[in-house]
Specification:
This protein is α+β, with helices and mostly antiparallel strands and 326 residues long. Helix content is 38%, strand content 21%. Helix 6 packs across helix 10, helix 8 (231-243) runs antiparallel to helix 9 and helix 9 (251-263) packs parallel to helix 10. The model has no long low-confidence stretch (mean pLDDT 90).
């Protein structure tokens, strides 16, 4: 079966017989007629809840639920319904509905996960152009050691920036990095007290650890390394490995780079190993915060439908914000 219908095409009343990827799972619960469970399924155009209405046999429903994993592609036969104003796909096992797992290799992964709408090669070229404006030879060599590493660049170009809040799609990390690098360059003109080379180099490399933060197939999932160590520490280690290959790299400069990377989240409760203690670290923290919040807000607003009066956007710090829908 080829994928023909996408989430963005679904309307209430449609009979569904197509493939979708599992993004999230919610455990089975009992209801008046038996047991049910929920999945969040989706494709490159969006996500939609799926409700599997099972019978009275709890074991049967749980077995079906446990046989499905986040990242699986499934063939769905059901109907689009509405619950509390939200579209969902309902599957009732008594009505010849169902879902079946599709074997790996029998589908195109890119159809089930969103990608940046921007040209990846063009963005990467612009990032290279910004990198070439770094006048400090030691910092330029460090940044270049990443951007000329073919294995790293291949991962960097297609990595997501996050799982949920902003730039959470293939190419999102590159898109986010380019935004922050442009901001760093511009802010250095406004504040001549800043070391432009240090700030720009830090803006380019500070999230490189995210190439090891996610396993990305049909869904975006955190790696064990990310959950136990975090991308800031991963990045700081990657930078140290590159610096060790550069002769006569000043220790004080290495320490400043490490500090900026480890402190760019700003507050300890947001995952910072240190609070920002030099001007460039303060600048990068606020650049990062601006890029995440504004990009995430714009991204959420673009997802609004004409029928929505408002949508609640959950920002990086967990605060709910209503969006004015004009």
């Amino acid at each position: 079966m080829k994928k023909e219908i996408y989430v963005e095409d679904l309307v209430v009343g449609d009979e569904v017989n197509d493939r979708f990827a599992i993004k999230e799972k919610m455990p089975p619960k009992e209801y008046t007629k038996g047991w049910f469970f929920k999945l969040m399924i989706g494709d490159k155009t969006g996500k939609i809840p799926l409700v599997y209405w099972g019978g009275a046999e709890e074991r049967t429903v749980r077995s079906r639920y446990e046989g499905l994993q986040v990242g699986d592609v499934i063939e769905v036969r059901g109907i689009v319904s509405s619950y509390k104003g939200e579209e969902q796909i309902s599957i009732n096992e008594k009505e010849l509905h169902g879902l079946e797992r599709v074997k790996c290799g029998e589908y195109d992964v890119k159809k089930y996960i969103p990608s940046t709408q921007k040209d990846i090669d063009e963005m990467f070229t612009k990032l290279l152009q910004l990198a070439r404006t770094i006048e400090d030879e030691r910092l330029y060599n460090l940044v270049s050691s990443f951007l000329k590493d073919e294995d790293f660049v291949e991962k960097f170009k297609t990595s997501p920036y996050s799982k949920r809040y902003a730039h959470n799609y293939l190419g999102g990390l590159l898109e986010h990095t380019l935004i922050e690098s442009k901001l760093a360059s511009d802010i250095s003109d406004i504040y001549p007290e800043l070391d432009r080379d240090l700030l720009l180099a830090s803006a380019i490399i500070h999230d490189f650890g995210k190439v090891k933060e996610y396993n990305t197939t049909t869904s975006i999932e955190l790696t064990n390394e990310a959950q136990l160590i975090g991308h800031t520490v991963i990045c700081e280690r990657m930078i140290k490995e590159k610096i060790d290959e550069i002769s006569d790299f000043p220790e004080e400069l290495r320490l400043k780079l490490s500090h900026i990377v480890l402190s760019h989240h700003g507050d300890y409760e947001w995952g910072s190993a240190r609070s920002p203690r030099i001007e460039e670290a303060v600048a990068l923290h606020h650049i990062d915060l601006l890029a995440v919040r504004l990009s995430g807000f714009i991204q959420a607003k673009e997802d609004l439908s004409p029928e929505d009066e408002e949508m609640i956007y959950v920002s990086k710090e967990g605060i709910k914000r209503p969006i004015f829908n004009r």
